[in-house]
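Hi all, long-time lurker, first post. I run a small reading group and we've been trying to get comfortable going from sequence to structure in the token notation. Rather than ask abstract questions, I figured I'd post a concrete chain and ask someone more experienced to write out its structure so we can walk through it together at our next meeting. Sequence below, copied exactly:
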Amino acid sequence: QVQLVESGGGLVQAGDSLRLTCAASGRTFTAYAMGWFRQAPGKEREFVATINWSGSNTYYADSVKGRFTISRDNAEHTVYLQMNSLKPEDTAVIYCAADSKPVELVVPYIEYDYWGQGTQVTVSS
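-- Answer (accepted) --
Happy to help. Here is the structure in token form:
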């Protein structure tokens, strides 16, 4: 089993930065691909970023390329999402997810096995 807890969300102005943290527990965490997703009110869940088990490969949604960075520290059982140049359209509940399947990078949210409770990011104009 894997348990995930997100933190670091908040209310910021356009152009500001936030760093989200996903704290994970579980014996097999280091072998899992990880992802970040977001869901705005009234919208469908949207892929943001993913990282493979070692941290050597990453992939981003077009909407966040050049602004967001996903990283992980397996020694600390932690995944990060650095968000720069935030825009009002980034406002959403953002979720951390873990995929136990033996793949490098995972985009579809339905394929992830474990989810955190989410953290709210609100960006004012």
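A couple of things your group might point at:
DSSP finds no helices and eleven strands in the chain.
The chain has a mean pLDDT of 94.
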